[in-house]
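Minutes, project check-in
Item: structure for the 179-residue chain
Input as provided by the requester:
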Amino acid sequence: MSLLDIKLERAFDVFDSDRDGRLQKSDVIGLSDRLAESLGYAPDAVEALRTSLADLWDTVFHKMDKNDDGAVDRQEFRAAFRARIVTDQNRIWERIRNMSNAWTALGDRDGDGMLTREEYTSMLHGMFRLPRETFDEAFNQLDVDGDGQLSRDEISSAMKEYYTSEKHSARGNQFFGRL
């Protein structure tokens, strides 16, 4: 299995919130509700994130469902994501950047446009239910300029690297923790 396939498997697991081996719209949109709950926000406070996740489902994930059963399995996800990256880079990254920006805005408690280590680990732990230590280590890799904060550009670049890079040394590989 290639490095990109390993990362896509991890991404699939992150999105598959009910762990049934199938991605459905409720899995993807449900990430916003989990984040709201973990940060103590009212559900309407995450509307921008919910909307961007719904758009990501409707325009990207839904089209991965090749057998039209209302869900995306691992093989559909991996094959389609690889194909979309090659054929639709600008549109897919625009949607991922919108989701990333909405997500960052929610976690940015002090409103400075940056995520501190605590903000970053709290958000990812809240959304994906992975151990905080996983994201604490990832933060060190993603903080490219070493200022102790993650900018929207650092987060967006890390996400793009995660979903495209075959280089083992790419910082973005650590977005969901050590591979």
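Outcome recorded: Strands lie at 22-23, 72-73, 114-116, 149-151.
No further action items on this chain.
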